[in-house]
Specification:
Elements: E1 4-12, E2 18-27, E3 32-36, H1 43-51, E4 58-63, E5 66-67, E6 78-81, H2 93-103, H3 108-122, H4 137-149, E7 155-159, H5 167-184, E8 187-192, H6 195-201, E9 204-209, E10 212-217, H7 219-224, H8 229-234, E11 241-243, E12 245-247, E13 253-257, E14 261-265, E15 270-285, E16 289-296, E17 299-306, E18 316-321, E19 328-331, E20 337-338
Parallel strand pairs: 3-8, 3-9, 6-7, 7-8
Antiparallel strand pairs: 1-2, 1-4, 4-5, 9-10, 11-14, 12-13, 14-19, 15-16, 15-18, 16-17, 19-20
Helix pairs in contact: 2-3, 2-4, 3-4
Amino acid sequence: MANISIKNLKKEYENGFVAMEGLNLEIQDEEFLVLVGPSGCGKSTLLRMIAGLEEITEGEIILDGEVINHVEAKDRNIGMVFQNYALYPHMNVKENMSFGLKIRKVDKDTIEKKIKETAEILGLTDLLDRKPKQLSGGQQQRVALGRAIVRNPKLFLMDEPLSNLDAKLRVQMRTEIKRLQNRLKTTTVFVTHDQTEAMTMGSRIVVMKEGVIQQVGTPQEVYEKPSNQFVAEFIGSPKMNFTTHKIDENGRILFEENPDAIIGIRPENLKLTEEGDYKIIMIENLGSMKYIYAENEGEQFIIQEDQNSTKKIGDFAGIMIKDSSRLNYFDKKTGNRIEG
């Protein structure tokens, strides 16, 4: 098991830059937690502090009831997978996977057993004698995962492990990593800047911005009830629509300013009507659906329509809300969510 409590964490560098301060987070046993946010938001720094690769300025990291601030990285029983795989080029797959066990003086029979079991799980059995340069990107990533798995760690930490893969392989590896975590039941913290990865992989998501946690919740909670305008815009593809105009009781967007709030509307909660003043400026055809971009007087909306939509670029249409209960309201000054 691995429960992690992060209490009042601060990271300040020698030049005075404060990467984060007063950060609190609870990571539950067996969960797949995803840290997501734009580049420079502090997610990798947080991961490295958990791993023991980055010094903590203030606060505590508690692993299964033990404060590990001053425990050496090698003694934390944590398996880490990096973006660049960090495989030894002169060693074959088997040697790469067993290297850490040999350093810990694990007996030969145990090493053989662990390598065999892990290779079977990851589909590496036929590749054990190959060098890294003879492997594809996805195979190299599996070896990096295998090297972490054979140690039987309490916790997996993964820092942007899929960012070097092409789009097709990235989707495949997302599925493999999630399936692997479900099988091993090992607590996993996964860092990504890709909100699609976060939504598809995480049992919970932590959205970060400038070293501050903006929201923690399930993918559905974060998507449907974002805590502020930043989260609403960052999570979801395409992004949420925003308007400062009023909406009438029939779901029509009026050209009358709403003095109190910014209204957020997901593309799937909008529909086009036959008559209106919005000009269609672009259409993205995804096969099973279309994203239609329409604008009027500088205000643009993205509307999700099914594949049977006959709208064309240059057409004019109206826009209506499908379900007013799914609208999101944000304070104009703070950007924070307004409930009710």
